[in-house]
């Protein structure tokens, strides 16, 4: 019997409650962008280290943020940049290996541009300013200045570098699926929005009360592709109808759905105030984005689900427990759910300095009463041993904010 595994019954599912609230900050939302930038920097740096030194050097860039600029949509079909967007690069990174210096500024800036231009196609290099605050300070000099691979203790003894708890669950409820799929429907699955007059900064709030579902969507129109107010309101009407039909195709007609887009236009202080932007994200209008303020690693903010307090994005993918299990708990819950045909929630607890794989404690909740420790323990042990989480996170980008395969 495992001394780290605890099995419990899962009795409280959001889909069985009367009230369910789910939010999704889309791919172009400032907070999601900050998460993505931190993760893109970490992945790019990790690949550089693997290619040049054979191991991922110590780093954490999970304090990355975006300070919004100012773009002015002078009129329909026109816009200009007044104040650029600032990318604040924070955290710590190894800047040398032996006598080899590492140009972290170049690595960071190239990663930021590649990620941002994919998410915000109308953005240009001239729209950005980089503020470099990344340091290489530590209590032990060799931590960010390794002389050789011997200064990377995790290569010989893989331990958790933080005390943290992570949570993953599967399957998603119908409301969670709907919230994810609506954004995917709007933005498409490639670098170009499905609707060329819409930006990527989509935010969705879905509330279910019994069998009644209310969906509120904020999505900016692109000024250069919106010739008039009449065009804006006509397209908004068409989009509302199309999305409502799609919503019913996802959850079925046993639900009653009300779907509204850009409800700020109802405000008495600004009647008919259209939601129109130049590049399609509120980072052009002073909004800030900070790592850890957005979605969980499954792309959602589900009010009545247990959730991780860790911001996984940008942390070290080798030993930082909040990042490693931000990925592993999500994938393990899915594997258990599919293997044993059940609802599953996984909690991992790691203690700083203790073994990372397996964690200090692993709590498994399922609604399958036939599952016991003897049944599930061999499956979990084998799954943890064979899962190459570093490859999945770094090479395959499985923690980059994107569309979730559901």
Task: Give a description of the structure.
With 406 residues, this protein is an alpha+beta fold. It contains 7 helices and 21 strands. The strands form 7 sheets. A 5-stranded mixed sheet has the order 16-14-13-2-19, covered by helices on one side. Strands 1-21-20-12 form a 4-stranded mixed sheet. Strands 11-7-4-18 form a 4-stranded mixed sheet, with helices on one face. The longest helix has 24 residues, at 30-53. The two termini are 33 Å apart. The relative contact order is 0.21. The model has no long low-confidence stretch (mean pLDDT 93).
Blueprint (SSEs and pairs):
Layout (H helix, E strand, L loop, with lengths): L4 E5 L9 E7 L4 H24 L5 E2 L4 E3 L2 E6 L2 E6 L1 E5 L2 E2 L2 E2 L2 E2 L2 H16 L8 E5 L31 E7 L3 H14 L15 E7 L2 E7 L2 E2 L6 H23 L4 E6 L14 E2 L11 E2 L10 E2 L18 H20 L3 E7 L10 E6 L6 H14 L2 H7 L11
Parallel strand pairs: 1-21, 7-11, 14-16, 15-17
Antiparallel strand pairs: 2-13, 2-19, 3-8, 4-7, 4-18, 5-6, 9-10, 12-20, 13-14, 20-21
Mean pLDDT score, rounded? 93
Query: What topology, given as strand order, has the largest sheet?
Result: 16-14-13-2-19
Q: In whole angstroms, how far apart are the ends?
A: 33 Å
Percentage of β-strand residues:
15-25%
Principal-axis shape equals: flat
What is the CA-atom radius of gyration, in angstroms? 23 Å
Please count the helical segments.
Answer: 7
Care to count the β-strands? Answer: 21
Summarize the biggest pleated sheet: 5 strands, mixed
């Amino acid at each position: 019997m495992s001394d780290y595994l605890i099995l419990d019954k899962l009795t409280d599912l959001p889909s069985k409650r009367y009230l369910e609230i789910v939010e999704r900050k889309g791919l172009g939302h400032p907070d999601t962008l900050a998460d993505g930038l931190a993760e893109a920097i970490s992945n790019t740096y990790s690949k550089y280290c693997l290619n040049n030194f054979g191991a991922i050097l110590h780093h954490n860039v999970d304090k990355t943020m975006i300070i919004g600029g100012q773009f002015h949509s002078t009129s329909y079909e026109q816009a200009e940049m007044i104040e650029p967007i600032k990318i604040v690069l924070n955290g710590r990174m190894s800047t040398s290996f032996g006598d080899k210096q590492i140009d972290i500024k170049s690595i960071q800036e190239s990663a930021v541009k590649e990620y941002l231009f994919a998410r915000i196609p109308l953005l240009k290099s001239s729209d950005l300013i980089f503020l470099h605050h990344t340091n290489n300070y530590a209590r032990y000099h060799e931590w960010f200045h390794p002389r050789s691979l011997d200064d990377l203790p995790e290569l010989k003894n893989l331990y958790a570098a933080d005390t943290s708890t992570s949570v993953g669950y599967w399957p998603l409820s119908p409301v969670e699926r709907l919230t994810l799929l609506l954004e995917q429907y709007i933005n498409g699955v490639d670098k170009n929005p499905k609707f060329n007059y819409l930006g990527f900064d989509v935010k969705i709030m879905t509330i279910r009360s019994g069998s009644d579902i209310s969906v509120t969507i904020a999505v900016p129109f692109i000024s250069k592709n919106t010739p008039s107010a009449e065009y804006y309101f006509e397209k908004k009407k068409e989009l509302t109808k199309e999305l409502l039909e799609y919503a019913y195709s996802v959850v079925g007609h046993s639900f009653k759905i009300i779907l509204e887009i850009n409800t700020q236009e109802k405000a008495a202080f600004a009647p008919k105030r259209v939601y129109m932007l130049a590049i399609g994200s509120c980072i052009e209008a002073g909004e800030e984005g900070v790592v850890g303020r957005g979605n969980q690693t499954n792309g959602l903010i589900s009010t009545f689900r247990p959730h991780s307090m860790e911001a996984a994005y940008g942390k070290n993918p080798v030993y930082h427990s909040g990042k490693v299990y931000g990925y592993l708990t999500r994938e393990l819950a899915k594997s258990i759910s599919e293997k044993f045909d059940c609802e599953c929630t996984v909690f991992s607890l790691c203690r700083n300095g203790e073994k990372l794989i397996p964690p200090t404690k692993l709590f498994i909740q399922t609604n399958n009463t036939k599952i016991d420790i003897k049944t599930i323990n061999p499956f979990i042990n084998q799954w943890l041993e064979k899962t190459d989480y570093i490859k999945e996170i770094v090479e395959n980008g499985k923690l980059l904010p994107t569309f979730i395969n559901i």
